[in-house]
Task: structure prediction
Amino acid sequence: MAAFPPTLDIDPFSDQFLADPYPDHERLRAAGPVVWLEKYGVYASARHAEVQQALQDWRTFSSAAGVGLANIQKGEAFFRPPSLVLEADPPLHERTRPVLALALSPSALRDLRPKFEAEAHALLDRLVSHRAFDGVTELAEVYPIRVFADALGLCEEGREHLLPYAAFLFNAFGPRNQRFEETLRAGEEARDWVTRQCNRGALRPGSLGARVFDGVDRGEVSVDEAALLVRSLLSAGLDTTVYGLGNALFAMATHPEAWAQLQARPELARPAFEEALRFESSVQTFFRTTTTETELGGVALPAGAKILLFLGAANRDSRRWEQPDRFDILRKTSGHVAFGYGIHSCVGQAVARMEGEIVLQALAERIERIELAAPPVRRLNNTLRGLASLALRVTPRRG
Result:
């Protein structure tokens, strides 16, 4: 017989929770495989096994009602047309996602890598020469916007809208709290700019965005659908990288033993970035909606219920990871859910991984030491976890 979930008074969208979620993550995991969050009237899961199961089972735990608190199938307010990949289930998802997958094929990424590497080397040569820089505002925000926006085919004018758009979008997946309201005005203006840039005529010929519109010529998607897919590609390939790079730099600057391992073996850059994603997940939460009466972890769930999946908590679950609160770049991280899991996993994850690897390897080849020059400044967001500022001091390698 299925059990009923315990009730917790945790507010996962409060300033206190977002500033330091880890104590409450442990409360959530300890309480059971599924809990009831009374403040928002939703179920929640923070253990790895149940989070991964729900992410993988799209038939029971649907994305089509939206991956935020609002149920878009009931007409609850949202501020852009739903994504055709993140907020769509098959059969629509099966028709649209392959168009993005083709645009971001392994061969396409191989073609992009030399330019991505050249841009990283040029930027880091300049920053390392100063011996001090802000890892967020001068690196984590600058590099992805430069290389990925170029690859996508966006014009240079107006790119200052990209970060406000991300803040607005990911705040909108939570409640309509003060944090959402504060990003609303700038976010709506940014949303309008992004919408214009995702049209075929605005994209550079031969770019990733233009390749998405090739799907129109093949008869796979409509013109309007292609524009929405470019928008999805922009969000998926940019925001996770900006926050992921900032979090990775913070982890490296505060774990000298890990940095020494990477500095001695720069080829560990890819696993180091993966461990940073597990350890300090950029995307902390996403919602799903049950399509039928079901059970998760032996807990009964009704049909049509919202359930909040704590990706960041799942990635530090001791049931799945040994010493989960330890940052270990030699750890086998396979199975982390920082990019989601299953058919709705992040479409931009290959780009994010390539950029993270390139930046960490380039840094390791250039500097002996990396350390904090001042306490970091956190940027609170209803969905994302990251920093607004990360003052770093570096010692260049000799010879």
Summary: The chain has one domain: 7-396. The CA atoms of residues 274 and 334 lie 9 Å apart.
